[in-house]
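Bit of a strange request maybe. I'm writing a small parser for structure token strings and I need a real example to test against, not something I typed by hand. Could someone generate the tokens for this chain?
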Amino acid sequence: MASTPVENVVIGPRYRIDPAHFENKRLIFIANPNNPTGQTTPRSVVRKALDSGAFVFIDEAYFDFSGESVIGWIEHHDNLSIGRSLSKSMLAGLRMGFLIAHPVVIRSFESLVTSPYNLTLAHLVIAETYEHVIAAVNENARFIVNQRLLVQQKLEKMGLVVYPSETNFLLFELDDPGAIHRKLLASGIRVRDMSSIRGLGKHLRVTIGTEEQNEMFVNTMVRIV
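Reply from user aminoacidic:
Good idea to test on real output. This should exercise your parser:
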């Protein structure tokens, strides 16, 4: 894998993938929704990726917030796999994720060499009792979605460009993101400065937190912008 050529596609803040990039590829990764813009990929684009004949991995780490999935396609596509995570909506401390794929793909992964004892007791307990955990995960995800909408509305009232998100964060545009980032840090608030990423030179990303944290962020933005 170390010598495998990789094409990194610059998609910009509006997150538009040109299917022309799928030509002559053996492996295609698509984050859906993606980080850092928070937007989803049209199913028509995913379909074209699958039709290209490449092995397609869809990262659905933020599924709990978007509800968007192509899981129903797995039965008929042995070149499709889906990755999900428990780290985004509630159980970040576990650092736990899982793969959903056609049985042929799962058997191939199980044959790979993995490190011994790669799952902890906590991982196994959560996996076996996930049907009881999912209700709390979904409730927390709904809370975050509601808070995200409120934060978005308040930022837009300040005249900022805020990009639609299907995740637990918001990407927004500023004339001087570096200065705002430093002022937020000075106020005890940490957000992600995205200006070093190609196509996102004027953008910051804020993760939605508790109601109190979100209010602190918005009030501070009102004061410093």
